[in-house]
Amino acid sequence: MGIEDFVQRFEDYVVGFVQESAFDQKNIDLKRDHTLRVLEEARRIIASTGLPRDQARPAELAALFHDLGRFPQFDMYKTFQDRRSVNHGLLGYRELKKNDLLNSLGWPDKKWILLTVLMHNRAKVPGGLPGPLDTMLRIVRDADKLDVISVLMAHLITGGQNNSTVTLGLADEPDRFSEQALQQLRSRQMVRYEQMARINDFKLLLLSWIYDLNFAWTRQEFLRREYVSRIVETLPRSQEIRALEQQLLADLMSA
Ligand SMILES: [Fe+2]
Question: I need a surface site. Which of 7, 101, 156, 242 has the fewest CB within 10 A?
Answer without folding.
Answer: 242
